[in-house]
């Protein structure tokens, strides 16, 4: 029998789904339309082959994830309070010299109480390393303060020099912090370079001023990507792909929240002004400083909590360690805002004595919100070359309010 394909065009079976091809094959008379039947059979075989290959790829990708581990923090407020109070008293008695030892003791407590996959982190810095850096940082700060009292012009030049050195301080600080951190006897490291840091931490923020800070969310994204992508664990490198839109949407949310809080504060101040006009100036003036402090604490807790939670989740969910681990963060903005509000209130009401309790609560919240997906290359990490680093930059960066923290 002759295929009527010679008289009527063959349907476009390429556009059919696999289910539609199966239905067409069942409904067609293969003896009368052999070419069409062969075409449909070939397409079905091809589609099934591709589907099988796709399933194998997905299966292999899933096989790479060996297990998912929760970060655990075992520290307790009572334990850390005893360390903190001794650190505080000895730092006061020694006029701040013991603060280097206090920093090491504090970090070792928090690192050693942070567990991942049955292993705990280690902080390897020695107090003398911190002390040397702190002394030099104090000399730099003292020199700047001295210049401001005798020669403001020279102080301005000194400040500009420090600003130019800021990228180098950040690079050295990151190298020191990561090199002094170890997990399973393997150290972390940082391989960032001064040139890129100078562009990110100096040039781009200055450029954003001329865009009325519209460029700043993109700059913040670039900084976060730099800090992650230049970090290593042993011979493996971290990598992240961040979304600029996420930073802009979060920044818009921060702006909206800030405006709402400003409106509320304006309303409260308006009520105070009315009360003063009605002859109640003494009570209102007495409450004004307290209200200002409360407004600052609430604003800081809400704005920083919202921004940090959203950006932290985004960074963790888009970061991996080459064939070793993938990360996830499920930190709720509401939980972080509540934690910071309660912590701030407790610290103020106890005149700072609740600080250890607040630090332990914060560490536990961040740990509980963090998961690590262990991949098949987890046991193949080798000790990498972390290079040399000093504590000078870390102390100087902290003293001059340069925050290069990752978490």
Tell me about this structure.
- With 407 residues, the protein is of the alpha+beta class.
- Helices cover 65% and strands 11% of the residues.
- It has 13 helices and 11 strands.
- It has helices at 18-27, 34-63, 77-93, 99-112, 127-150, 152-179, 194-209, 216-229, 244-277, 281-317, 333-349, 355-368, 392-399, and strands at 65-70, 72-73, 114-116, 119-123, 181-183, 186-190, 231-233, 236-240, 319-321, 325-329, 370-375.
- Strands 1-11-10-9-8-7-6-5-4-3-2 form an 11-stranded antiparallel β-sheet.
- A hairpin with a 2-residue loop joins strand 5 and strand 6 (186-190).
- Helix 4 (99-112) crosses helix 5 (127-150) and helix 5 crosses helix 13 (392-399).
- The model is unreliable at 1-6, 54-63 and 398-407 (pLDDT under 50).
Short description:
With 407 residues, the chain is α+β, with helices and mostly antiparallel strands. 65% of the residues lie in helices and 11% in strands.
Termini Cα gap:
75 Å
**% residues in beta strands:** 5-15%
Strand order of the largest sheet: 1-11-10-9-8-7-6-5-4-3-2
Stretches with pLDDT under 50, minimum 5 residues: 1-6, 54-63, 398-407
Main beta-sheet strand count, sense and barrel state: 11 strands, antiparallel
- Shape by Cα distribution: extended
């Amino acid at each position: 029998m002759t295929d009527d394909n010679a008289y009527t065009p063959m349907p476009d079976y390429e556009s059919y789904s696999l289910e539609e091809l199966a239905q067409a094959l069942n409904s067609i008379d293969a003896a009368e339309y052999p070419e069409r039947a062969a075409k449909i059979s070939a397409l079905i075989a091809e589609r099934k082959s591709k589907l099988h290959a796709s399933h194998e790829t997905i299966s292999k990708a899933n096989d790479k994830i060996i297990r998912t581990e929760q970060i655990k923090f075992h520290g307790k407020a009572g334990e850390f309070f005893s360390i903190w109070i001794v650190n505080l008293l000895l730092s006061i008695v020694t006029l701040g010299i013991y603060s280097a030892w206090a920093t090491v003791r504090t970090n070792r407590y928090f690192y050693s109480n942070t567990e991942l996959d049955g292993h705990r982190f280690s902080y390897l810095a020695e107090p003398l390393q911190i002390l040397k850096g702190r002394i030099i940082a104090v000399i730099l700060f003292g020199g700047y303060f001295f210049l401001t009292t005798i020669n403001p012009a020279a102080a301005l030049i000194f400040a500009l020099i420090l600003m130019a050195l800021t990228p180098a301080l950040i690079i050295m600080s990151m190298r020191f912090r990561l090199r002094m951190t170890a997990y399973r006897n393997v150290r972390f490291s940082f391989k960032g370079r001064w040139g890129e840091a100078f562009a990110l931490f100096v040039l781009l923020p200055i450029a954003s001023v001329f865009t009325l800070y519209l460029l700043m969310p993109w700059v913040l994204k670039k900084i976060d990507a730099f800090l992650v992508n230049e970090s290593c664990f042993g011979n493996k490198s971290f990598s992240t792909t961040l979304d600029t839109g996420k930073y802009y949407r979060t920044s818009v949310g921060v702006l909206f929240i800030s405006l709402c809080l400003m409106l509320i504060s304006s309303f409260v101040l308006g009520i105070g002004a009315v009360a003063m006009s009605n002859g109640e100036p003494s009570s209102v003036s007495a409450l004004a400083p307290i209200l200002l402090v409360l407004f600052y604490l609430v604003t800081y807790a809400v704005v920083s909590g919202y921004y940090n939670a959203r950006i932290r989740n985004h960074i963790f969910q888009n970061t991996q360690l080459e064939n070793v681990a993938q990360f996830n963060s499920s930190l709720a903005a509401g939980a972080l805002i509540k934690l910071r509000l309660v912590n701030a209130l407790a610290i103020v009401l106890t005149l700072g004595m609740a600080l250890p309790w607040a630090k332990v609560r914060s560490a536990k919240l961040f740990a509980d919100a963090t998961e690590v997906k262990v991949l098949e290359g987890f046991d193949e990490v080798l000790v990498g070359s972390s290079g040399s680093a000093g504590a000078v930059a870390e102390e100087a960066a902290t003293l001059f309010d340069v925050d290069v923290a990752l978490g």
